[in-house]
Write a structure and sequence with these properties.
Rossmann fold, alpha/beta, single chain, globular, 23% strand, 31% helix, 2 domains, seven-stranded mixed β-sheet, 219 residues
Length: 219
């Protein structure tokens, strides 16, 4: 059941429906222009946009920033770049019209690292659309374990040593298992407001629960 709800490769899953709606909201933020509009996608790939069936206007130039290079040649208008979201010296202040980032900021490390990423996004882009799963949602979206984020680190490590959990494969080594557990730091709405002061907040709901949070600002 949890896999069906969270499987983004299934177009009928709750995760896919929410993502399509989210992307539609983002596309409305792209300035209408006769000139070039520069978009920075932190952590995305050309494949992910293709899988959603998104066709950007011809005047859009999309820079894809990732730690590793794109696995296949990017289509026209997409420019793959290697880099770290926490430190983007290759980009000037205000170089991009808008920055998009989907489910990345919870993976960059500690709160200190998340602060660094948020500051860099707001430095290099005049507008932004940053989504992250909500820490308060009952089902943790990576391990697909109810209340996972509230369990002690040691217990989470031992559970991952024992079995596959959600999208995460079993890790027998105790240090590697702990590292895998600690590499996901979910954020609350309050933290997102503090990371992106003055931003608009969009909440994705499943029933009475906020599944994820988006901080956005128009350029």
């Amino acid at each position: 059941m949890f896999f069906r709800l969270a499987n983004s490769s299934d177009p009928d899953s709750a995760a896919s429906r929410l993502r399509r709606k989210r992307v539609g909201i983002f596309l409305d933020l792209i300035p209408k222009s006769q000139d070039r509009v520069r978009i920075l996608d932190v952590g995305g790939t050309s494949w992910s946009w293709k899988s959603l069936g998104v066709e950007f206007p011809a005047y859009c130039e999309i820079t894809l920033l990732n730690l590793l290079p794109e696995a296949s040649p990017a289509p026209p208008n997409f420019i793959p770049k290697q880099g770290d979201a926490r430190h983007m010296p290759q980009f000037q202040a205000g170089e991009f019209d808008v920055c998009f980032s989907n489910s990345v900021i919870e993976h960059v490390g500690t709160l200190f690292d998340q602060i660094a990423m948020a500051r860099e996004i707001q430095r290099v882009a005049r507008g932004f659309f940053v989504q992250t799963p909500n820490r308060r949602f009952p089902l943790e979206p990576h391990f697909l374990f109810p209340g996972w984020q509230y369990l002690p680190i040691g217990l989470r490590r031992r559970l991952l040593q024992a079995r596959d959990l959600g999208w995460m494969k079993r890790v027998a080594d105790p240090l590697l298992a702990q590292a895998e557990v600690e590499q996901v730091r979910l954020l609350t709405e309050r933290e997102m407001r503090l990371l992106f002061p003055g931003a608009n907040i969009y909440r994705e709901q499943i029933g009475p629960f906020k599944k994820s949070i988006v901080a956005w600002k128009r350029a």
